[in-house]
Every structure is written in structure tokens, then in C-alpha cells.
Amino acid sequence: MPSLVFVIDTLSKGGAENVLLQYVESLSGRYVIKVMVLKHIADYRLPEHAEIEFVLSPEQKLTENGFLILHKLTEAAKAADLIIGFSDFWVNYVCVLAAKLAQKPVLLSVRNQLSRELERFDLPAINRELVHFCYQHADKIVCVSDAVKADLVQAFAIPAAKIQRLPNPVDLQKFAQNHLPPQGLEPFFAAGPVILVIARLVKQKNLAFIVRLFAKLKADARLCIVGKGPEYESLLALTEHLGIAGKVCFPGYRDDIPALLQHAALLLTASHYEGQPNAVLEAMAAGTLVVAPKIPAIRELITSGYNGLLFEKADEADAIRCIEQALANAGHTRNLVNNAGNTVTPHDSHHASLALAAVIDSIIGKTK
Predict the structure, then answer these.
(1) Residue 182 contacts by C-beta under 8 Å, 6 or more apart in sequence?
(2) What are all long-range contacts of 314-318, with beta carbons under 8 Å and residues at least 24 apart?
(3) What is the pLDDT of residue 367?
């Protein structure tokens, strides 16, 4: 069987990590798979059908061990048919370098609008140049949405012919099954309709906006923000300042996302930008109404009033209107979630894995 090396920075809880593990599980009978994780952080259950190698300890820094990482990736690439970078920026940079040193093809996965992600960097200019240079040398790039593809073409001059859209996969069967209320949160969910947020607690997700608008809702609802991140303390302080701490919970990371979704009244997101949010796809699969901002990646999935409700970005009053409309009109909400279920069907994990396999085979075939 052909052999693949997937490369990712960590296996901590997150969208990219979740998608990678779905692909590893689905493709394990078709390829010999090795996963190289740059830092030994693994919050997910590790796949049984793939070799896992952790390159660095949690304390070691990526940038200080660049040559060691490059050496190990190059040696792995020499023994494989294809190396696949599965995390933007640093991981994809070293994957391209390792592949070229090993004279092997390289496939890159791009999961977000990189021009917006650069805003987080201390040295955005050099990273902009590195994206332009390294990504040009990939044999192929897969991206999760048209918004991400357009960003690569317009902001980094990557040829459109090199890029293929490959939407995120969802295990539809898992999210369609009936689940008991989330363990340990039963009283919270029983106290009233729950507005669910699933996100890393970072500025990109615009969570302070959600907390502020929740404080202004007329409906007697609860807010559950699932995830971890550097914004936790400031968000907690904001709930206390607004006098709503008793109606808001921060349970951290959870492994029972299907149960949380099925027992929530709606999923709410307010991100400044996205690639293609897994939480939105999972809510659509679970039969949970999505209320989200009108940003490009979301609008590829949701048509407001047909399979979800969209509000104008950063418009607090419009977001409140959508939420209160959803909570007050169960019949209309039922129609929206039924349509959402039909919309998400093409994202089934099996179909997505076959699409990725077709890309992989096209690259391997050309190099043999």
C-alpha cells in the first residue's frame, strides 16, 4: 500500500486535530499512515491503525528546534510516498522544506483565512512572504471553503489551479443518534433553554460580544460556552460585571459534543472570520439550529431563513433578534433544522475521505 505521513503541531482539542483523526481512521485500510505530531500534546484518543511519533516534548519550543524537526520530517518523507501538512504556517513551511529535501511530493491543508490569521503574529510580513514562497512549492493544496481558496489566491498569489476545495468531514451517524443530557450539566440544561457556544476562547471567536448580547436577551435562557483558551478569565469577569454569572457556564473541553448539541436550543457563533467551522457542521448534523454572523465561510453553509439564521456581523441588535426569533418559534425552527440536515449530507466522513483519497492518488500517480 502507498504510505503517507501526516504532520500536525499537536493533538490537543481542536477542529484541525478532529478532522485529521477522522481522515486517519477512514483511510487506514487504503494507505500505510504515520502521524508526526511536533509537540507531545494529545487530548484525543490516539488512532489504533496508524503509527504516531511525537517529535518534541510539551516544554520544547518549535522555533528553537527547527533543525531537529526538519531532520525528522525529512527522514520520514524519504520513507513515504507523500507528506501532508495539516496545520497552517509553521507546520506547512517545514513540510514543504522536508519534502523538497527528500525529493517527495507534498500536499498542504489550509483551514483558515491566512491573511486574517496573520493579524495574530508579531512579524506578519515575514510570515506573509513565507506563505507565498512555501505554498507555491506544494504539489497541491486542499482548503475547506471557497472563502479560504479566494484568500490564498488574492492575498498570497497562489495559483487557483493548485488549490482544491475539500470541505470538512462530519460523522453524521454519531450526531444523528439520540443522546442523554450532558453528564454533570443536567440541572443547568433543565433550568431553561440553553444557548450553546463551542469555540476556543480566543479573540477571533468574538465571545465577549456573545456575553454582552446574552445579558440583553428578554428570554429566560442559559449560556454554555464550551472550550478553553486565554480569554477565559476576562470572559468570566465580564459575566460577573454584567450580573449574569449564574446563567452562564464554562465547562471547558467536553467529549460529549453530540449530547450538548442535541439538548441545546441553538448553537451560537459570532466569529470575526472562519475557514469552515466544525461546530456549525456538527450542529446541522445534530438537528440543532445555528445562529451565526454573515461572514463568507458561514454563508457558504447557511442561507438565513432556510437552514439557519444569520445576523449582520457585529450587530448586537440583529443577533438578539435572531436568537429571540428562534426561541419563540419552535415550528419555524423545526423546518430550518430539517433543511440543515439535508445541507450537511455531502459532508459525511465517508464521502470526504474518498475525496481526499482521490487528491492523494492523483499526486502519487503523477510522481511514479
Answers:
(1) 189, 254, 256, 259, 260, 263
(2) 314/206, 314/209, 314/270, 316/209, 316/212, 316/213, 316/216
(3) 58
CATH topology of domain 3-169+348-367: Rossmann fold (3.40.50)
Q: Do 297 and 275 touch, CB atoms closer than 8 A?
A: yes
For 335, residues 6+ apart whose C-beta sits below 8 A from its C-beta are: none
Cell numbers at 76, concatenated: 520520514
Question: What count of other Cβ atoms lies within 10 Å of the Cβ of residue 18?
Answer: 18
CB atoms under 10 Å from CB of 321, counted, come to 13
* 257 grid coordinates: 459534543
- Provide the whole-model pTM: 0.92
Beta-sheet pairing, 266-268 with 248-252 = unpaired
pLDDT in tens, 198-207: 999 999 999 9
Give the model confidence (pLDDT) of 209-262 as tens digits: 999 999 999 999 999 999 999 999 999 999 999 999 999 999 999 999 999 999
Are 285 and 176 in contact by the 8 Å Cβ rule? The answer is yes
For the domain made up of 172-346, the CATH class stated in words is alpha beta
Q: How far, rounded to the nearest angstrom, does the alpha carbon of residue 268 sit from its chain's CA centroid?
A: 15
Q: Check if 3-169+348-367 and 172-346 are the same fold.
A: yes
